[in-house]
Amino acid sequence: MKHPAHWLSASATLFAAALLCCPKAAVADTYTILDLGNDNGRNIYGMDTAGDVVVSQNFGCSLGSFTCYVTYVDGVAGTPASSAPDLVYDDGTPCNTTPSGLSATKSVCNQGFVGLGTVYNPNGDANGAYIGSGDDFQFLHIGSADQIFLNSVGDLTWADGSGEELFEAIDTSSVSPVPEPGSLLLVGTGLLWFTAAVRRRANR
Tell me: the pLDDT tens digits for 66-77? Predict the structure, then answer.
């Protein structure tokens, strides 16, 4: 009569290990959209791997400087400088093809990511900025994309000429969620109780 208890105990242990160790099913990336301000007299100069965006503008500059540069870190503007900051820009390169169903006016590729600015899409999807790969794209923001830059970790920045605004989309899906200690404790306690109950029943 002890054999079933051992078998159930092993099954419970394997089940617990599967719950804690097996990866979750893949889901679409999640993005945080940041508004970098009006695009009148302003252009995107470039973006680095960290997602810092440099904007060139023709106002707010010091005396004797007709163009200055502002670096945005997590959507927050720094102090204008008369020269572009010494960053390693990671803007991507133009793509050769457009995914089916979308009509891209601007496209950029980088390390398997593709960023698009679209208009009058044949499939009826909204005009605006998209990101993805292959034929799997997700919509980011309505409008246009007169400039578009993409870094190698999947952050996208673009100038929306129709809305006269600059935007950045930061990929926040790469941060793996940490299991809650309370949930793990609850599962572990339940499995220990179940194993002990099975053993007591089998030993009778």
Answer: 899 999 999 999
